[in-house]
Design brief:
With about 140 residues, the chain is an alpha/beta fold. The protein has four helices and six strands; from the N terminus they run βαββαββαβα.
Length: about 140
Amino acid sequence: MANSASGMAVHDDCKARFLELKAKRVYRFIVFRIEEKLQQVTVEKLGQPDESYDDFTASLPPDECRYAVFDFDFVTDENCQKSKIFFISWAPDTSKTRSKMLYASSKDRFRRELDGIQVELQATDPSEMSIDIVKGRAI
């Protein structure tokens, strides 16, 4: 089903992999990209459960937009082990204007397809999604 604003469809694989991350914790993170020629969002990379937040941020291209989800584990002030699923919209300043517009216009529809997102972050620079910011948003 295409997004009326941008014409982007969401590949079934995106939802299937997200459900595996959410329910079975098979992945630590998923990076999604828009395949402009196909007019759809597809899975670009699946992060294994033992991969770190640094591995995740390193998998985002420095000059291209992406969507991503990250399963963030943390310990609360009450010493409880918790996990939150972050949706990250990555649009670096160095990416093409057309790409930024395409990702921005498709984001809300795509995010709605992923039921279970708890926190949303938008970043144009790695400092805007540092581990400290993620921890602060999780608690």
